[in-house]
Structure formats: structure tokens, C-alpha cells
Amino acid sequence: MSHQTQKTIHNLIILDESGSMESIKKETISGFNELIQTVQASQQEFPDQQHFITLVTFNGMGIRSLIVRQPVASLQPLDNTRYRPQSMTPLYDAMGFSCTELEQAIRDQPDTWCLVTVLTDGMENASREYAGTAIRDLVDRLGKGNWTFSYIGANHDVARMAADLSIANHMQWRSDEKGAREMWARERHSRAAFSYKMSMNYDPEDLKRQYFNENQKPGDLPAQDDNEDPILP
User: Fold this and answer.
1) 8 A C-beta contact, residue 53 and residue 70
2) What is the DSSP letter of 85?
3) Exposure string (b/e) for 25-39, b if CB count within 10 Å is 16 or more?
4) Is the pLDDT of residue 223 over 60?
5) Which H or E element spans position 137?
6) What is the three-class DSSP state of 122?
7) 214 Cβ contact partners less than 8 Å away, ≥ 6 residues apart
8) What is the mean pLDDT of residues 129-148?
């Protein structure tokens, strides 16, 4: 039997908890919990992978680390006592703090990949420590290593925002109940495809830049023409 190198994957989800997310709070909680189930299933399917979850939420009241590098197998579901939308959107601060903290925590860990997902229903409007240019520089620097970034947004020009932050993977979604369910479903497909491609030793550049090209995992969503913004109807 051939020896398989154990791969560690850190799933960092940076989740908007501003007041406008209140109308889809139920869908956000259930979507996150289903995402965790998807990652748990991937870890079972691919024994060469060990997944950890970090969940960081952000609003004008603060940036909260609700889950910090916990093994996915033992993770407890998110509930409405911990996810409480209110206030404004310090997106840059949330990205800066959470990515820097994760970078420091895994600095000496071999065979590690970081999969960062930013999910928001609006634009930055409340950061105090980080500017957009600083986040772009951070993404550029981390992206030279084993880091994949995706940006999922609503109610603004998502393609432009992702480009401004040097994020190659982006998805537009509609911030209502149906749109939220569809967005989370597509994200789960992408995450399952990512685990498949990791196990099959895909080219690192594909892992970094083709996150929403889920058709590369057999049996998933229909093929996309390219990695342009998959705008949900």
C-alpha cells in the first residue's frame, strides 16, 4: 500500500454579522451548519485530509472568534444564541485580524493549506485598523503560499470588490431567504470539490484560482465556462 501524506486544511470562514443579516439569520445558521457537515463528509471520504474550522464573525460591536481551529469531527452546531446580527460592517478589520492570527498559528506546520471564505451582504463601512490596500497586500502575500481566498457578496459590485482585494474567486448572491439557501448550496459544492482536488493532487494554482469551478469534481454542478462571477438568479 502506498503511503499518503497527511494534509491539514484550515477552513477559515469570515462571516458578516451586521444588522442587515438579521433577515436571513435562520438561513445563515443552517447554511453554516450544513457546510460543516460537508467538510465532515469530505474528511471521511478522504482519509489523507484533516480539517479544522475557524469561524470569525464581524459587526460594529466587534470581531468575534466563535470557533478557533477546532477539528471538524468534534464541532458543535452554530445556533441563534451565538450568531446575533447587529450594527455595521468592519470587513477589512475582520479579514486582517483573522488571516494574520491564522498565519501566525500555523507558521511551522507542514503540508497545510488555508481556505479562506469571506461572506457579506454589503460593503465595508466600519473598519478602524485596516484599509483596503493593506488587505490587498495581505492577500497577495499569503496567496504566494498555500492559501485560497473566496469572496461571496451581495448588494454591491462583487467582482470589483474581489479584484480590489486581489481575490480571484468570487460569487454574487441575492440577500433574501431563497438567495441565501442557493448561495450556501453552491458554496458547499465548491468546498467538496476543493477537497476532491486536494486529494487528487491538483496543481496548486488551480486550487488557488478555480474554487468555484466545481465541475472538476465528478457528479457535482454543471460546467462553468470559466471562473467568472457565478451570479445567482
Assistant:
1) yes
2) -
3) eebbbebbbebbebb
4) no
5) helix 132-142
6) coil
7) 186, 189, 190, 192, 193, 220, 221, 224
8) 98
- Entry pTM: 0.92
Sheet holding 147-153, edge to edge: 62-71, 49-59, 7-16, 112-120, 147-153, 169-172
Q: Provide the CATH topology of domain 17-216.
A: Rossmann fold (3.40.50)
Q: Side chain identity at 175, as an amino acid letter?
A: S
Query: Could you identify the residue written with the cell 460591536?
Result: 61
Worst-scoring range by mean pLDDT, 31-35, 89-93, 228-232? 228-232
In the chain, where are the structural domains located?
17-216
Instruction: Indicate if the pLDDT at residue 228 is higher than 80.
Output: no
Is the pLDDT assigned to residue 224 strictly greater than 50?
A: no
* Residue 58 β-bridge partners: 16, 63
Q: Check whether 207 has a pLDDT greater than 50.
A: yes
Burial class of 69 by CB neighbour count within 10 A (0 to 12, 13 to 18, 19+): middle
Predicted confidence band at 5 (pLDDT cuts at 50, 70, 90)?
confident
- Site of grid cell 478555480: 210
Closest CA to 18 of 121, 93, 98, 99: 121
3-state secondary structure of 215: helix
Taking 60 as the threshold, does the pLDDT of residue 198 lie above it? yes
